[in-house]
Design brief:
The protein has helices spanning 9-32, 41-69, 82-90, 111-136, 138-143, 151-174, 183-190, 197-214, 217-220, 230-243, 249-256, 276-281, 301-315, 362-377, 382-390, 410-415, 435-449, 495-506; strands at residues 2-5, 192-195, 261-266, 271-274, 320-328, 334-345, 351-360, 394-400, 405-408, 458-462, 468-480, 483-493. The protein is α+β, with helices and mostly antiparallel strands. A hairpin with a 5-residue loop joins strand 6 and strand 7.
């Protein structure tokens, strides 16, 4: 078990203050209705009135806090996993089924809670508050002729109070369904939620994702001189601010093994920082051998010229995305990657360096070269098919003239998250496409059937599990006896590249 900081200070303050006020309002309200005698009627009315004003003030401050901190997004309703959540509360709890949703600091409420809390905020509490104000100032309103009967107001206020009290009782019961009966209550007192190792890891990844997107200066570089690298800084920032109560070395290792290589170089073109992914792509093991070296190190003559042109463009204030670059790795092998970069600045706004991402495209480039060789050599080329069949990074497909899959390799199956080729072979290529995506792909398909080769393009895919991915797709005609009988090509996953570039765009630099 690990402890993750989920609830902020003010969040805990208003939660317990609201709970206390609701219970005290119920206590004094029932006495006003004559259910029992505790304070005396006049004193109960006075207490109830003062508590009501305290409740209204708390609501105003809390709504302001929600709006200014962005916490209002927690209450946006969603039907995703709603059925599973209801089934969990009805039967799953009693058979110890796993919870269908995960809790993080940016997603504290499950879909059923979101709907319940939204109803509480826009219906039940407004009814109780406004009917209470009408109740409180009934005499004033009667004197102005607006209302002549207290009965409907009293019934409405009482009904709202019972609904609010019912919510509190249900809420208290559901707090006992955590890892331990009192763990949820303890979490709302301390702010720290007890989670399994897996749930804590998911919470950290969610926090990191939001931190990286919100830390736009970590990409553009303004004011980032003292950072030890965007990923490392974001990790430490999340651990410090959101609190992962563990060493988390395994989680850090997982983060640094993502598919995005990070680099930062100074104005003279010397490396100041790289992450582990960058080192892996260059097949280096020692960061110290890289830091301080020039960006033209380990390049072909053409590569040196190109990389310096890109660096100079960024140092002049430009942001670049998706530029193809060749690299010479430490073991002498050649690799290819795209680079997206932006300038970073000192506190006075002067450009003092470049930082950005690199994404490996070696498999794609090799597949493109094999395809070019195949096209140049005629109808068939065994090297191309052998490469496509065995490739673990490039997905191969062949579609007949009517648009039905004839063959795919294992990587294609994996990218679409299917279990076997049998789920794809014989299906139409419109499989897992939106109407708009299908129309765009159909036009490309028709162009290829007329003899055109489409060597490069990016498209969206909808996987079997409902997730969305992005890939580059190459399409070329398939010939038999000089006639076009279908389309074949390959796809290379670009999901991480797409997300990284979207972060750059979100920074306002693109």
């Amino acid at each position: 078990m690990k402890r993750v900081l989920i609830y902020k200070r003010y969040e805990r303050f208003w939660h317990w203050t609201q709970a206390a006020l609701i219970l005290l309002l119920a206590l004094t309200g029932f006495e006003v209705h004559g259910v029992y005698h505790l304070f005396g009627y006049e004193q109960a009315v006075l207490f109830h009135r003062n508590l009501a004003w305290a409740f209204i003030i708390l609501i105003v401050f809390t709504q302001f806090w929600n709006l200014t901190t962005g916490e209002w997004r927690q209450y946006i309703p969603s039907t995703k996993m709603l059925k599973a959540q209801i089934e969990y509360y009805i039967t799953g709890i009693f058979r110890h089924a796993p919870h269908p949703t995960r809790k993080t600091v940016y997603n504290k409420f499950n879909p059923l809670q979101r709907l319940t809390y939204l109803g509480l905020r826009i219906l039940i509490i407004p009814v109780v508050v406004f009917s209470g104000l009408l109740y409180m100032y009934y005499v004033y309103i009667v004197n102005h002729g607006a209302i002549h009967d207290l009965g409907p107001i009293a019934y409405l206020h009482t009904a709202g109070a019972f609904l609010l009290l019912g919510f509190v009782i249900g809420h208290v019961y559901l707090t006992t369904t955590g890892h331990r009966p009192l763990s949820a209550i303890k979490a709302m007192i301390t702010g720290w939620e007890e989670m399994s190792d897996e749930d804590a890891e998911i919470a950290l990844e969610e926090n990191l994702k939001v931190a990286l997107i919100e830390s736009r200066k970590g990409i553009s570089g303004r004011g980032s001189i003292e950072k030890e690298g965007m990923f490392e800084h974001a990790f430490e920032d999340v651990v410090e601010k959101l609190g992962i109560d563990t060493e988390s070395t395994r989680l850090r290792e997982k983060l640094l093994k993502s598919n995005v290589g990070y680099f930062r170089i100074n104005k003279d073109g010397n490396y100041e920082e790289v992450n582990d992914v960058w080192l892996n792509l260059y097949k280096c093991v020692d960061k110290n051998s890289v830091i301080g070296s020039h960006v033209t190190k380990d390049r072909t003559p053409e590569g040196k010229e190109k990389i310096m042109k890109l660096v100079n463009r960024v140092l002049s204030g430009e942001t670049i995305t998706g530029e193809r670059v060749e690299r010479v790795c430490k073991d002498g092998s050649i690799g290819y990657h795209t680079v997206s970069a932006a300038p970073y600045y000192d506190k006075d706004g002067n450009i003092i360096g470049v930082e950005g991402f690199i994404m490996d495209i070696t498999a794609q480039v090799e597949a493109e070269k094999a395809l070019e060789k195949k096209i140049a050599s005629g109808d068939k080329n065994d090297d191309f098919y052998k490469m496509m069949k065995s490739s673990k990074e490039v997905g191969y497909y062949r579609i007949d003239k009517d648009g039905f899959y004839q063959d795919v390799n294992d990587t294609y199956v994996k990218l679409y998250k299917y279990d076997s080729k049998d789920e794809i072979i014989g299906k139409h290529y419109s499989l897992s496409r939106t109407k708009e995506d299908f129309e765009a792909l159909k036009k490309s398909f028709e162009r290829v059937l007329k003899g055109e080769t489409i060597p490069f393009g990016i498209t969206r895919r909808y996987c079997k599990d409902g997730s969305i991915g992005y890939h580059h797709i190459t399409m070329t005609p398939v010939y038999e006896n000089g006639k076009i009988v279908g389309v074949e090509g390959f796809i290379v996953d670009k999901t991480d590249k797409k997300l990284a570039e979207e972060e750059l765009k979100a920074s306002g630099q693109v």
